[in-house]
Amino acid sequence: MTYRERRPPGLPGLGVVCVWSRSGGATAVRVLPDACADVIWHRESGALWVAGPDTAAQLSAPVAGTIVGIRFPSAARPLGVPAADLRDARVALADLWSTRRAADLADRLAEAPDTAAAQRVLVSALATEPDPLAVALRSLAARTGSVTEMADRLGYSPRQLRRHAHTAFGYGPKVLHRVLRFTRAVSLARAGTPFADIAQAGGFTDQAHLSNEVRDLSGTTLSDLVG
């Protein structure tokens, strides 16, 4: 199996994390929570679906062939539905859009001569200007799990902030903080950072706390994720 992701120029300004592709045999993949949502197209079958923001790791269906995707830090604007409606879900795009609109996008993707062209189709159809409040909230949640602190910094009540977080990310600020902290810990581990250093840098109480959080969110150990 071959997985590639890239960040073409201009994507962050369009509210997109990356475009990606995966090709190879029918292998199940452990998909880790990352506070993002993806729109995914399978070239061979033409299937077009949405993977919502996850609260824990999921095993993808073992699909052979070529899969092309686009990843968003928030699904609300590009898809037109609250991200909370997609939490831990895999939903056909036609269930969220009109049948004709989804079919038109599927037809454009089918006409794409290669993976890069299919990714450009997804960007042109789905990329939107990012939600400034969602951008600010994500940045704060990467540093703190205090809802009160985030609300004060952004000028909202805690209740308003929780409501916006559910709309933008699929869950509240505290869960967003946990997922972002976990994502950073995995990235540091894969870069070779000692686990004790990751625990300290990531704001975990200790290495045991790090291990427990990784297991809760991924279903396995940090060593297994790195390996």
UniProtKB/TrEMBL annotation:
Gene3D superfamilies, per database record: Homeodomain-like (1.10.10.60)
Pfam families: HTH_18
Domain HTH araC/xylS-type: 131-227
InterPro entries in UniProt: AraC_XylS_family_regulators, HTH_AraC
Gene Ontology molecular function terms on file: DNA-binding transcription factor activity; sequence-specific DNA binding
Alphabetical keyword list: DNA-binding, Transcription, Transcription regulation
Record-given protein name: Transcriptional regulator, AraC family
Taxonomy of the source species: Bacteria, Bacillati, Actinomycetota, Actinomycetes, Pseudonocardiales
